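Hey, can you fold this one?
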Amino acid sequence: MSGVIVLDKPAGLTSAGAVEMVKRRVGAARAGHGGTLDPIATGVLPICLDEATKLAPYLLADDKEYDAELVLGVETDTLDRTGAVTATRDPSGVTREAMIAALAARIGPQQQIPPMYSAVKLGGVRLHERARAGEEIERAPRAIRIDRLELVAWTPPRVKIALACSKGTYVRSVVADLGRDLGCGAHLAELRRTRSGTFAIAQACALDDVASTRPIGMVAATRLPIVAMPAALERKIRDGLQTIAGELAGLPAEGQRFQLVAEGDRLVAIARLERGKVVYDRVFKP
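Sure. Predicted structure:
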């Protein structure tokens, strides 16, 4: 059972809710997801099963790709269509050329302030809980990166865009920033994740099909380099005993994480090299 199912999450379902439904339908003992999607969002949600739950932190670090639809001229408190309207402006003066220029200006490394309606914790309390209590908390900006931001369809006030970005990027905030750049405001109406790390929407299955879907193997689930290991070392590593660099061939640079893989494509550990020693981040059961 250990592996990753790529779910095409339907709208209206939380990521945690999707995980529980998949866990029950496939009979897994443990399950977790590799990157939260808001309830209104659909698309790629990697769900890790059993031993593969140890891979979740590495999947969370992956880059993402989205298709999004925004509405010009209307701002909301949640930055998406689920929120209360906070401002309206006439967007009729915004041209297609202005939209393209605004998109181009948002590409590259930048700082982004997490929205109040988010799962980020501050003082042990999630921001969305504080927001629903009527609080507005100062949030520190976070470094993000937008690699691609393209206009897909121009039918104002509704606009479709596609973007590729680093982990931790809030598309709702990107849309709100674009609205401010254009001087008319905007909110997110629809969101679909089309890629998360190695997983693309073409690999995703519907919720009704998860029970008959074969999970993707753990070795194929991450982008980490693969280091083949001798059979004689497998028991030693699974027992957590120290391994030195000289016992393995083809190791990547010091500090870079890699997969230790035994014959038969079995993931034994995720490790890194430190001062000539192999340090294990995660060791997997056979």
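The mean pLDDT is 93. Let me know if you want another pass with a different chain boundary.
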